C-alpha cells in the first residue's frame, strides 16, 4: 500500500497535465483566449504545453519523478498566479474548474515531491 499511493498520485497528475495538451496544441478557442489575455499567445501556449508534456512524462519514469513534480509545481504555480492576478478564478463561465484543477494539481505535485524528497540528489 505504501508504494501504491505515490504511483496513483503520479498517474493522476500526469493524466491532468497530458489531457490538457490537446487544448494547447490544437489552439482551442478557450486556450487561445487564456494565453491572449496574459500576453503569451501563441508561443507561451506552445512552450507551456511542451513543459507540461515533459513534466507528465517525467512523473511516469521512476528515476525522474521528483524532476517532473518540481516542473509541475513551477508550471502550475505560474497558472495559479495568472488566475489570481490577470485571469480571475472563473474563465468563460467554467465555474472555476480550471483554477480548482490547477490548485489540486499543485497540491498533489507537492505531495509527490515530499514523498520523493530522499531521491533528490542535492539534499
Automatic annotation (TrEMBL):
It is a multi-pass membrane protein. It is found in: Membrane. It holds the Pfam family DoxX. The keyword Metal-binding does not apply. Keywords: Membrane, Transmembrane, Transmembrane helix. InterPro entries: DoxX. The chain crosses the membrane at residues 7-23, 43-61, 66-84, 96-115. This is DoxX family membrane protein.
